[in-house]
Write a structure and sequence with these properties.
The chain is mainly alpha-helical and 292 residues long. The protein has 2 domains: 201 residues, Cation efflux protein transmembrane domain (Alpha-lytic protease prodomain-like), CATH 1.20.1510.10; 80 residues, Cation efflux protein, cytoplasmic domain (Alpha-Beta Plaits, 2-Layer Sandwich), CATH 3.30.70.1350. A 3-stranded mixed sheet has the order 1-2-3, covered by helices on one side. Strand 1 and strand 2 form a beta hairpin. Helix 1 runs antiparallel to helix 2, helix 2 packs antiparallel against helix 3 and helix 4 runs antiparallel to helix 5.
Length: 292
């Protein structure tokens, strides 16, 4: 299964799982007036949107290049991840305000064993989605899949605290319910911000990571004919990078010989998983002027 098929599958499973959880959490949350459960339901609603964006974004990003999009549609993955992050932040801020109000006013909720049952069902469902999505991410490191993976992991942790707040209702400790609602909201907001920054960096053509740059430089060093390099530039193309490098070779080499070196280097770099395309420009140099 390729990267984009995995993203679409993760999206479909996310929609089905989160829709089921939204219905049961929303119903029980409003019946018992549990702020942590309602916040948990809102989190499931945002997860449905995130899963839909994962499916649509993965489908668009999988389209090959065409005359209007010479570099393909890979950036759709990051554009839709940006939508996901913004939706998460909006939902989080809204419920943070509501949870703060409930804490200040001392709001209570009606304990029900249904709260406990829903929490357990949520934890089991999210644990399954987390481990399955994690298996997809190992072979297909898509940001969309990564975003869904974080969602499923966070939901497991969030619902554990929702479960604790529900059990505390047995002994009439209600303030913890509002505190959990606040914590859930902050957690969602923080996760959304992380995804936003990562997506924004790619969409704004952030340079290639130093780790990958060093891998490229080490490959270039293996060519003894290359005296030095200049103008190392990069631009993201979806989840890969377009690389521009100027190399300097002995000016006494023939045009064929110097371009053969560039061709071999391009072929080797293009075989790297994170390279979309490498473009090598060749300049002649007088090797006698190179400083030792």
């Amino acid at each position: 299964m390729n990267r984009f098929s995995s993203a679409k599958l993760a999206g479909i499973l996310g929609v089905i799982g989160n829709l089921f959880l939204l219905v049961i959490k929303g119903f029980i949350g409003f019946v018992t007036r549990s702020h942590s459960m309602i916040a948990d339901a809102a989190n499931s609603a945002s997860d449905i949107f995130a899963s839909l964006m994962t499916y649509v974004g993965g489908k668009i990003a999988s389209k090959p290049y065409d005359d209007d999009h010479n570099m393909g549609h890979g950036k759709a993955e990051y554009l839709f991840s940006l939508f996901i992050s913004i939706s998460m932040i909006i939902v989080a801020v809204n419920f943070l305000i509501n949870s703060l109000k409930s804490l200040i006013t001392g709001a209570t909720f009606t304990f029900s064993w249904n709260l406990v049952i829903v929490c357990i069902i949520t934890i089991i469902t999210k644990a399954f989605l987390y481990f399955y999505t994690k298996s997809l991410s190992k072979t297909n490191p898509s940001l969309l899949i990564k975003s869904n993976l974080k969602d499923h992991r966070n939901d497991c942790i969030i619902t554990i605290f929702t479960l604790i707040s529900a059990l505390l209702g047995l002994v009439h400790i209600y303030w913890f319910d509002s505190v959990v609602g606040i914590a859930i909201s902050i957690w969602i907001c923080y996760t959304g911000w992380q995804i936003f920054i990562e997506s924004y960096d790619i969409l704004m053509d952030k340079s290639i990571d130093e780790k990958y740059k060093n891998i490229i430089l080490e490959i270039i060093k293996k060519y003894p004919e290359i005296q030095k390099i200049n103008h190392f530039n990069s631009s993201p193309v979806g989840y890969k990078y377009l690389i521009f490098v100027t190399i300097f070779v002995d000016g006494n080499l023939s045009t064929f010989e110097s371009h053969k070196i560039a061709d071999n280097l391009e072929k080797e770099l293009n075989n790297l998983d994170f390279i979309y395309l490498s473009i090598i420009h060749v300049n002649p140099i007088n090797i006698n002027t190179i400083k030792k």
